[in-house]
Fold this protein.
Amino acid sequence: MFTNAGYDVRGILLHPNFVSLVSAANEGGQAVSVFGLPIMANTYSSSVIPIILGVWFMSKVEPIADKISPKAVKFFTRPLLTILVSGIVLLVVLGPVGYIIADWIGTFFTTLNTYANWLVPTIIGAVLPFLVMTGTHHALTSIGINNRMTIGFDTFIYPGQLASNVAQGAAALALSLRTKDPTDKEMSWANGLTAVFGITEPVLFSVTIKHKTNMIAASIGGAVGGFFMGLLNVKNFSGGSPGLLTLPSYIGLDAPMSNFYLACIGAAIAFVVAFIVSFILNTPKKMNNQQEEISVQSQSKENEYQDEIINAPLKGKAIDLKDVNDPTFSQGIMGQGGAIIPEIGELYAPCDGKINTVFKTKHAITLTSNCGAEVIIHIGIDTVKLEGKYFDIKVKDGDVIKTGDILGTFDLNKIKEAGYDVVTPIIIANSSNYQKIGVAKGAITNGDHYIELKV
């Protein structure tokens, strides 16, 4: 829904007829209007902010158009009303406002680039992992794109992200050489390589958050690498997922090759600094202490684990975890399990146990069964961005639950209308404690046997 709206908005602002109309108006000094409402004769081919505002407004208009459209002709009237209202508002109000905002942002960063070009890349290099944890890093992407569209290059967002991603991967690779735990070694090695090439979510959630030493190393390495590239005004010309594979995006048609070389050096500095810091902080003594602590905890819990059945917490369609459109879940980074596409926005306790954590954004719950299974229920994909809207969770941290207890409700239709996938992963976080994990597929009702665990 949201994505399709974005394509429509872009089509309005960049359609050849509109571009020709604007060009003719600028050349002839004529006014442009729609239904008598004046339109600023701006060219939007080099601005991304108007499109973002247009997509946002269209996402608000479409649910209203859906409600007032008769079912018999909804397939026709809903898109017609949405594009008519959104298009007029976009051309008359949001387009000009976005154009001005984009120009202000470009001017701001140009001025900042003159007086403190090192500041923003350094900050982004240090804090990006924390932004990715909450999904707020996506806001930076639009700023980077706007910089390239308005001033021709970006010296703030992408260089800082490049340093951070490479640093986080390097910290994980260093950990893989230190740790004796086979799971940590495999995770840190494989996901560390992925991070160095530009995708950090797997290593962030499987390694960096788990080991605070790696978070420290990634932040220090990212800050140093970002500072270097900011200080030397390294320019990014074409974006991409910041990592070693997108280093060619620092080659510009009119830019000297030294810009590319400096980007490579900045990435290397971030890698080396983060690797060394991680290698030092994860000393064998500290790693052994951690492993001994984990071993003691495992031994104390060894006899607690039992074969058990985790019931379905939702009514809907059970699908393979690998079919979830999020690599954090589909690749089993958080553990094995399954996913359910809910038909009803009601969440029930899948077993007897205790609530560990109810996320502040109410989109996820973790619990531990009386038999030792650690269960994560994550309602929807990226629904953390809703910040609790449309969710009503009826339990809190520490609550004791019985199978079938209502855990909460959520407005399924509102979440869908907001543009989010409602597929709900149900993960066994301590999957390594079980020899076999079987998951049911197809139509399922809350209370049905869903995940079978064998120790």
Summary: The first strand starts at residue 32 and ends at 34. Residues 137 and 453 are 37 Å apart (CA to CA).
